[in-house]
Write a structure and sequence with these properties.
Length: 537
């Protein structure tokens, strides 16, 4: 029998490895700061006092074999010590591991632009350390106990039954303990091996997926774009009824649609936009060159063509960017052109008529959304936004190529799969309050929701209840015709089941049609209705 004493240290080290691996994986998956990377940066900052090129410093620092060795030795002894402490009580290891996690958290905070969610990998590391330490020291503890009850102190050299002149016939009780010890010894070794191998595998995988995306995300957060202002929605856009979707959609609440599983992470320093085709001169723009152009800003409601009647693939944001017509004028559009074919880094494409861009400053190559550098999932570093057209026909994310061409000569991604080539957003309205199927006390019930008719604007919203005539709702003013509006109306409702329906009227006087059609091929039509029950008071 081996003496397991230094195996406590081993279990500490292996649990430590596991925590580093899961935290790296969490950081990669969430594209947030990795605690180890942050610690490396804090270390290089403290030791070198280096402020410039800090992003590169991190990678450089970790790459040198000496640093790797030093970090491995320091962390290894800390984890080993935690394992030794766990020999007495597993929770004693917290005395080492919790402060270690605290230091990592501080290193993450010290990085510019970090948020609370950048601490998730730190928490993941701490939890993994404690759980793995528990899982590994469990069989170890039982092994030691079994050896003790067999009368073999773990400090003694292994008993040697074959030693001459020493008859060691174990008692049945001792034999049972020895068998138990053997069982736990194996289970400890197996667990340790599995955890160590899995940790190494996981951290190798995590570092390959994550590194590029993490650096891009860090750069993105550090971007300060001149001419981008914070979104300040006019107070009067809200009707003040709880339950209606917020007038401004926060970036993290904004719907996303893309054909790729993982959005491309594009380093702004490596992004270029090429404008070519039916132009007088080809233009290639870097991100920096794009930002040197005068910035335009606008509220624009973005709608996905797949939105069903009453659906929620709609969002309203404050966009900042360079008008597409400005960029196209630099290239000099030839008279025979009538459209652009936009292509993204990931190979997706959409076709947009020039008539929707000419003279429209809100039809832009956006670099910021709600005052923040464009989030990766919304097209960082640049995406187009065109008021009045469904996203699939205009709102190219991660756009890298604009070909000036003709509608009859293009075959963009969704139109080649059955969707219409030209796709103006259809007028639509939605009831957010009450929810479909909700119970309300009978009496005064306030209804509310949103309506949109980008480019034209909403003139009015009407509601009918249980087949009544159409009543005018109060419509809150919008800052322009390209955004949705909120509306509200109150009815005195008797007890029982009810059906309410909404329709909108645009500034051209056109009334939203009640004819129901599917989203395919160019957007759904029909009136949104909800059923609710008014309860006897
Ligand atoms: N590169 C790329 N851009 C794209 C798409 C896509 O699949 N790939 N989807 C489009 C569609 S269908 C819509 S509705 C909008 C959605 O933009 P959002 O994800 O920022 O809300 O992006 C458009 N731009
Ligand atoms: Mo869409």
């Amino acid at each position: 029998m081996h003496t397991p004493r230094r195996l406590w240290a081993l279990s500490g080290v292996v649990a430590g490895l596991a925590g580093l691996a899961t935290s790296q994986a969490a950081a990669s998956l969430l594209t947030v700061e990795s605690p180890l990377g942050a610690a490396g940066e804090a270390f290089s900052f403290l030791s070198l006092g280096e402020l410039d090129g800090r992003v590169d410093a991190l990678v450089g620092t970790l790459r040198t074999p000496v640093t790797v060795l030093v970090v491995a030795l320091v962390l290894g002894s800390i984890f080993g010590y935690a394992g030794r402490l766990a020999a007495r009580h597993w929770w004693l290891s917290c005395l080492v591991l919790v402060p270690l996690a605290g230091l990592a958290a501080l290193a993450v905070i010290a990085l510019p632009g970090t948020n609370w969610y950048d601490q998730i990998p730190v928490l993941v590391a701490l939890l993994t350390w404690l759980l793995m330490l528990l899982a590994l020291t469990w069989p170890l503890r039982r092994w030691v106990r079994a050896l003790r009850s067999a009368g073999l102190e773990e400090t003694q050299p292994a008993a040697a039954p074959s030693e001459p002149g020493r008859a060691t016939v174990p008692s049945p009780q001792q034999a049972r303990s020895l068998a138990q010890a053997e069982h736990n010894r194996r289970s400890f070794l197996v667990r340790t091996g599995v955890v160590a191998a899995a940790s190494i595998g996981l951290s190798v995988a995590a570092s390959t997926w994550g590194k590029g995306a993490q650096l891009v995300e860090r750069k993105r957060k550090l971007l300060r774009i001149a001419g981008v202002s914070k979104p300040v929605a006019p107070a009067e856009v809200r009707v003040g009824l709880a339950g209606i979707v917020p007038w401004r959609t926060r970036n993290d609440k904004f719907f996303t649609v893309e054909t790729v599983l993982v959005p491309p992470s594009i380093d702004p320093d490596e992004w270029f936009l090429r404008i070519h085709g039916l132009v007088e001169r080809e233009v290639v723009l870097s991100y920096e060159e794009l930002l040197a152009r005068p910035m335009s800003e606008a509220w624009v409601t973005l709608v996905c063509v797949t939105t069903e009647v009453g659906g929620d693939q709609v969002g309203n944001a404050w966009w900042s960017g360079v008008p597409l017509h400005v960029l196209l004028a630099e290239a000099g559009v030839l008279p025979e052109a009538d459209a652009i074919l936009q292509t993204s880094q990931d190979g997706w494409s959409c076709g947009t008529p020039l008539s929707e861009l000419n003279g429209v400053d809100a039809a832009m190559l956006a670099v910021a959304m709600n005052g923040e550098p464009l989030p990766v999932e919304h097209g960082s570093p640049a995406r187009s936004v065109v008021p009045g057209l469904y996203g699939y026909a205009s709102a190219c994310k991660w756009v890298v190529d604009i070909e000036v061409t003709r509608l009859d000569q293009m075959d963009p991604y969704w139109p080649s799969r059955g969707w219409a080539l030209e796709a103006p957003v259809k007028i639509a309205s939605r009831i957010d309050v009450p929810r479909d199927g909700e119970d309300r006390p009978a009496g005064l019930v306030s209804f509310g929701g949103v309506a949109w008719a980008p480019r034209v604007g909403i003139a009015g919203v009407e509601v009918t209840i249980d087949g009544s005539e159409w009543f005018h709702a109060d419509v809150a003013p919008a800052p322009n015709d390209d955004t949705w509006v909120q509306w509200t109306i109150t009815f005195d409702v008797p007890p029982g089941d009810h059906l309410a329906m909404v329709r909108a009227i645009d500034n051209d006087g056109d009334v939203q049609t009640g004819v129901e059609t599917d989203p395919l091929p160019d957007g759904a039509t029909g009136w949104h209705s909800i059923e609710f029950t008014a309860q006897e008071a």
